[in-house]
Amino acid sequence: HRAGRVAEAIATYEAALKHAPREPVLNNKLEQWRRDATVRARSFESRGAHFSVLFQGPADEMIARRAVEMLEEAYWRVGATLTTYPTRTITVVLYTDEQFRDITLSPAWAAGSYDGTIRIPTRGAIDQPEEFERILTHEFVHAVVATIGGRDVPAWLNEGLASMLEPGGGPDEATLAGGSRISLSQLERGFARFSAQEAQHAYAQSTLAVQKVVQLRGTPAIV
């Protein structure tokens, strides 16, 4: 599934369910993947040199084309910073808000996700193009980090690097000043368990930590 082979992932879980038909993890994930497969099957595609953007219909075609342009720009900028350029085509799926929540099961504050596929709700993409570009770049950095470090990169490093490399990225000083310090050991796992306010502080602190590493040792040390 992380490699984008959704049909094979579904077939594997369906085979597993024959041996454990009531296993909740298998059933819940299978339901989630089937919803994803249905959306993908009905999608149109806009392609770039390094990205395949799936969108829901003609109304989203302009958004998809702009997403390709933004991502291709991010590909070279982020790649030059991290000296890493993913070679496989990265799939991006644009969803309605409802589809995004149903398929990713993300917390309400999440603006995008990456699980081998970049997933973004399109709400606000036309009215807030800078925010749309920020989210796309953030999730693309996760794809680059996965290329470098696989699945074992601590969340604070992964999220901090993604936030730092966003257009105009940097820690939110007001957020840092308004909350208590969280140890990095508490930020090793994903942030989905946090409330919106806690997540905001976790992102800001993670970004500051990564910036300090860069200041001390440079980006090559992170890579």
Q: What descriptive keywords fit this protein?
A:
9 helices; 223 residues; alpha/beta; globular
Please give a structural write-up.
This protein is α/β, with parallel strands linked by helices. It is built from nine helices and five strands, in the order ααββαβαββααααα. It has helices at about 5-15, 25-40, 60-80, 95-105, 130-150, 155-165, 175, 195-215, 220, and strands at about 45, 50-55, 90-95, 115, 120. Strands 1-2-3-5-4 form a five-stranded mixed β-sheet. β4 and β5 form a beta hairpin. α3 crosses α5 and α6 crosses α8. The longest helix has 22 residues, at about 60-80. The chain is globular, with a radius of gyration of 18 Å.
Distance between the termini: 25 Å
CA-atom Rg in angstroms = 18 Å
Biggest sheet descriptor: 5 strands, mixed
DSSP summary: helix tally? 9
- Structural shape: globular
Number of strands: 5
Strand order of the largest sheet: 1-2-3-5-4
Structural class: alpha/beta
What fraction of the residues are assigned to beta strands by DSSP?
5-15%
Approximately how much helix is present in the residues? 40-55%
Please mark out the parts with pLDDT under 50 across 5 or more consecutive residues, or reply none.
none
Give the overall average pLDDT.
92
What is the succession of H and E elements? HHEEHEHEEHHHHH
Chain-wise SSE layout:
Elements: H1 6-17, H2 24-41, E1 44-47, E2 51-55, H3 61-82, E3 90-95, H4 97-104, E4 113-114, E5 118-121, H5 129-149, H6 155-164, H7 173-177, H8 196-217, H9 219-222
Parallel strand pairs: 2-3, 3-5
Antiparallel strand pairs: 1-2, 4-5
Helix pairs in contact: 1-2, 2-4, 3-5, 5-6, 6-8
